[in-house]
Amino acid sequence: MVTINTCTECNVEKLMHARNMCGNCYKRVGVPKKECSNCNELKPHHAKDLCTRCYINLNHLDYIKKYQQNKKSVAQLFKDL
Ligand SMILES: [Zn+2]
Ligand SMILES: [Zn+2]
């Protein structure tokens, strides 16, 4: 479906790509940034008002534990996301 709308980033009326942004802005901006409710930093929003890192820390500790059992570092886990 083709939608022409005003881009929320550049305010130009264009073909929308996703999230009311044109293709250029979507590429540039990507995931909308939001203040994380845990670390209060403005970061790309992951879910439930949390940034990716906090979301994992708060919700996926088991996942991290399993990951570590596979002898992969948590740093690698964040790279893979
Ligand atoms: Zn735009
Ligand atoms: Zn956070």
Tell me about this structure.
This protein is α+β, with helices and mostly antiparallel strands and 81 residues long. 38% of the residues lie in helices and 27% in strands. Strand 5 and strand 6 (50-51) form a beta hairpin. A 3-stranded antiparallel β-sheet has the order 1-2-3. The protein folds into 2 domains: 1-30, no CATH class; 32-81, no CATH class. Helix 2 packs across helix 3. The protein is elongated and about 50 Å long. The chain has helices at 23-29, 52-59, 61-69, 74-80; strands spanning 4-6, 13-18, 21-22, 33-35, 42-47, 50-51. The chain contains 4 helices and 6 strands.
- Average pLDDT, all residues: 81
**Radius of gyration of CA atoms, rounded to a whole number:** 17 Å
Helical stretch count? 4
Give the tally of structural domains: 2
Give the overall shape, derived from the CA principal axes.
elongated
Main sheet summary? 3 strands, antiparallel
**How far do the termini sit from each other?**
29 Å
Listing every helix as H and every strand as E from the N terminus to the C terminus, the arrangement reads: EEEHEEEHHH
